[in-house]
Design goal:
Distance between the termini: 15 Å
Oligomer: single chain
Largest sheet: 6 strands, parallel
Number of strands: 26
Radius of gyration: 23 Å
Mean pLDDT: 92
């Protein structure tokens, strides 16, 4: 099989397209095919930096890993990163292209079709199978003109489509039928199968419904996938933050500030693997309580994050907790918030030229027009451990006399720390993926509380992710008619 494709589209957002694409990527790869994922346009703040320094959506990174491939921006040529409710930064082929309001982008996006076609063709030429993912629903009739991510992309790729519906929300048969009926006749011809996702219970109870939906639509049901207990990194801010609170009786209480336009929240994933750690997301000072660690995560809009902290009384609440003994750890935008002053001379983030930060670190941030996107590694200065991560930020820093650098990198230094390591900030996304550092940091906090160090197994985060891809593929393979799916791939349209 060479140069074939298949596309998963959904009846709505968050129906499980990304995870099912990841499953198909791994299943096809296990069966000996050369597979690559593709999504023409992502809207997500949870981005990733490739080895070449390009920025792309996290979902296609997971899918690439499932194919045993290095992530590349050809897998996701357009990434939209919302900076306000009506405006997004446009990342094209991994680099910042422009910022546009929604209506301006709607008019502009047809001009991107040639670039999308070019990147898709490059990927197809080196693949046996390309697994394409749609976005939202193909039946948004107000947005269908000049579509570049659902049926418009299927047409460019000449790809058959499988439609995914989420039964957990209720109304799955109506949503499947309604979606298909709102498609044009030509678009309906592309839909070759239906998958019902996130089912809880006995499939026997569904059988009459499965027969009827096949009769009503003329499209075969390829299987019913149960609600899966797998931990695959999330695509965007629709993530279920409750999943991070598995260890409710943990002896280390970690409060993650849920900043607006929170980005790269997958930085927290590795922490959730640590035993005896309780993670909770905090929206206001009334929820803060007295945590052992406060984490200020990345945010697409640091200035809006600062405004949020003040409106929710977290600005003073964080400082009060810090004075009482809480450790504070900031990543990227969260690190910038921990500094003394933020300067925005060029209006990169807001109309406000200058604002005061939390003042926990002797650092000033200067926002600039150029974004830094790079894979980084170095030696952290608390325990002397090797660490690696990736950077995505538009700010440069100026450290004061009281500032002590956190990481010594190949090209200089990164981050800052103070007050016997109780305040630490870094631009390294993925800092907690470094298991030895993370365990030593948490044990340092335990020691400050008079607790014994935790000496359980240190989980390698990459090994953990691999175990989840295997589990996902096994469960989905059992639930779907894979032979029918291969037939769809081979026959195309």
């Amino acid at each position: 099989m060479k140069n074939r494709s298949i596309m998963l589209q959904g009846t709505a957002s968050n129906v499980g397209k990304s995870i099912l694409c990841t499953a198909l990527c791994r299943i096809f790869t296990e069966d000996g095919y050369d597979v690559n994922p593709f999504k023409s346009q992502n809207m997500s703040l949870n981005s990733y930096i490739t080895a070449e320094g390009g920025e792309m959506g996290r979902a296609q990174v997971s899918q690439a890993e499932a194919c045993y491939k290095l992530p590349h921006t050809d897998m996701n040529p357009i990434l939209l990163k919302p900076s306000t409710d009506k405006k997004s930064q446009i990342i094209l082929n991994g680099k910042v292209f422009d910022s546009m309001k929604a209506m301006d982008y709607f008019k502009f996006k047809p001009s991107l079709k040639p670039e999308i076609q070019k990147t898709y063709n490059r990927l197809l030429e080196k693949s046996d199978i390309v697994v394409l993912e749609g976005a939202g629903s193909p039946a948004e009739i107000n947005l269908k003109d000049n579509d570049i991510v659902n049926m418009g992309m299927a047409e460019m790729a000449k790809a058959p489509v499988i439609l995914v519906g989420d039964i957990d929300k209720g109304g799955v048969f109506a949503s499947l039928l309604g979606t298909i009926m709102l498609l044009t006749e030509e678009e309906r011809k592309r839909v070759k199968g239906i998958i019902i996702n996130k089912f809880r219970g006995d499939v026997e109870l569904l059988k009459s419904g499965l027969v009827q939906i096949e009769e009503l639509t003329g499209v075969p049901v390829l299987g019913v996938v149960p609600m899966l207990d797998v931990d695959i990194e999330d695509e965007d801010s629709e993530a279920d933050f409750l999943k991070y609170s598995k260890n409710k009786d943990g002896d280390i209480d970690i409060a993650v500030i849920k900043l607006p336009y929170i980005s790269n929240f997958t930085d927290i994933n590795a922490l959730a693997l640590e035993k005896n750690v309780k993670i909770r997301f905090v929206n206001g000072a009334d929820e803060l309580e007295n945590p052992d660690i406060i984490i200020l995560p990345g945010t697409k809009s640091t200035m809006n994050g600062l405004k949020f902290l003040k409106e929710k009384k977290l600005f003073e609440g964080i400082k009060e907790c810090y004075e009482k003994g809480s450790f504070v750890f900031g990543i990227c935008g969260g690190y910038q918030l921990m500094g003394k002053t933020l300067f925005d001379e060029y209006g990169v983030e807001s109309d406000e030229k200058e604002a005061c930060g939390l003042g926990l670190l002797d650092v000033e941030t200067y926002f600039e027009k150029e974004k830094k996107t790079v894979l980084s590694k170095g030696i952290e200065s608390i325990f002397g451990e090797s660490v690696k991560g990736y950077e995505i930020h538009m700010g440069t820093e100026k450290k004061g006399q009281q500032a002590e650098s956190f990481i010594k990198t190949e090209n200089g230094v990164d981050g800052c720390m103070a007050n016997n390591f109780r305040a630490v900030g870094t631009y390294f996304h993925g800092i907690f993926d470094n298991g030895v550092f993370t365990r030593k940091y948490l044990n340092m906090v335990r020691k400050s509380k008079g607790l014994n160090e935790y000496e359980g197994e240190i989980v390698n985060f990459s090994d953990y992710k691999e175990s989840q891809y295997k589990k996902l593929a096994k469960e989905v393979r059992k639930s779907l008619d894979i032979e029918k799916i291969y037939r769809i791939v081979r026959e195309g349209l």
